[in-house]
Write a structure and sequence with these properties.
Elements (H helix, E strand, L loop, with lengths): L15 H4 L8 E5 L3 H24 L4 H17 L3 H19 L11 H19 L1 E5 L2 E6 L5 E6 L3 E7 L2 H6 L1 E8 L13 E3 L4 E8 L1 H44 L5 H13 L2
Length: 277
Amino acid sequence: MDKASSGDVVTAQPSGVAKRYLVEGENLHWQGKPATIVIVGRGVLLTALALVFALCLWLGPKDLAAIAIALVACVLMMITDTRYGLIAGAVGIVIILIMWAMGTDGLWVWLILFPLIFSLIYLLANIIYLGRVLFIITDRRIITRYGIFSLRYAELDIERIQNITVLQPWYERLLGYGDVFFATAGEQGGIDYQKPGIKLMSGGAVTWEDVSKPFEVVHKVNDITHSGSRTQSEGRTASSGISDAEVRLRQLSDLSTKGLISQQEYQQKRDEILGKI
């Protein structure tokens, strides 16, 4: 990060990936990804639970304690991920019921590996996904890129952001991540908001999911928007000051032309007015 004086927005040096999305004269202020502990950690936990499930049924297919542990593992898989974990856990429960009813003979017993194989594929997909996702904040735009096989890209002008909301339940707060919602002035297109990791809500709110240090993101955007407001305000103030000085100089010139003030008084007042600009 580059150091900046008080009141200035601190810029960052863009990585090779971020550089390709910046236009000439555009400054990068922040870039990041979803929290690794969420994206990869969820896949690791799901895989670990699937492994416990497979070992329990493999080593003790008729043991009540082993079956109970396998059932608990299935329930935890369903809680860990409400989409893919739900599939793995539900299939695991069906497998337990079949094994209990029909015994452990037959090639179909290898089905106990299905939740484990499914979870490993899910973990690999999450690792690839994490490498493709990119969140960027510049002095002009909010840029989003994500996808696994198909790359999705969207950008949003900073000026269109109306307000920012952070959603951070207690467990996300403990781990230091949360969802950031950018409410916009109107709808934007180009993003499938049903996909994980990035959403574009139909009402015009762009959502960055599972962002590490979400309030740092809010701080960066607020710095940029407020910096622009300060610049505009200072410009208006300076313009107003010049206009006021022009009016006073004209009035002073009229007084001098009409002989109401001496040349010395005119020059003295003129210097005072010009000195305040």
